[in-house]
Amino acid sequence: LVRAARENGVPVVWTRVEYEPGGADGGVFFRKVSSLAVFEQGATSYGDFPPEAAPLDDEVVYTKQYPSAFFGTDLAGDLAEQGIDAVVLCGFSTSGCVRASCVDAVSYGFIPVVVPEACGDREVRPHDQAIFDMGAKYGEVVPLSDAASHFASLR
Question: How far apart are CA 90 and CA 115, in angstroms?
C-alpha cells in the first residue's frame, strides 16, 4: 500500500507511539494496557519503524499517545489545510488504532478508507469484526488491489 502511494505521488503520513517515562501522558489508556510501557521514552526500540516499513525523510510522522491518529495531534488540521478529503488507513491494531482513527476521520469530515490486507490485529476475530464495523458505519473498506489502482488513477 505504501509503495503504491509513493509510486503515484499520494502523500504518506505515519504515526508512532511514545510516552513520557511512567506513562504520565498516557492517562487511563496507558494504565489499562500495561504492554504500552514498551513505548516509554528510552525503554525499548519497539516504537521504532523496521527498515522495510520506515518513513522517508520527506514523510510526516505524528507522535501519539492514544489510539487515534487524530487525537492530540495536528493531523486533521494539516490534512484540511492541504485540501485532503479522504484518508486511506492501515496499521496495527485493526480493532484499536485503525478503528479509532477511522471513527475520528469520519467525525472530522474526512472519508475513511480501510485496506484490510494492510491491517493486523492480535487475532483474526477482532480484526474481522473491526473491518465489518468500520465498513458498516464509518468508512469504505476496499481491497489492496483497488486502493493501488485508485492511487495509479490519480497520477
Answer: 6
> Which residues are marked as active site?
97
Burial class for 45, CB neighbours closer than 10 Å (0-12, 13-18, 19+): exposed
The pTM score is: 0.94
17-76 tens-digit pLDDT = 999 999 999 999 999 999 999 999 987 777 788 888 899 999 999 999 999 999 999 999
* CB contact at 8 A, 78 and 30: no
3-state secondary structure of 12: coil
Q: What is the pLDDT of residues 69-110, one digit of tens each?
A: 999 999 999 999 999 999 999 999 999 999 999 999 999 999
Residue whose cell numbers read 509510486: 7
Alpha carbons 155 and 94: distance in angstroms, whole number: 28
In whole angstroms, what separates CA 146 from the centre of its chain?
19
HSE of 145 in the Cβ direction (CA atoms, 13 Å)?
Answer: 0
Q: Are 62 and 15 within 8 A, CB to CB?
A: yes
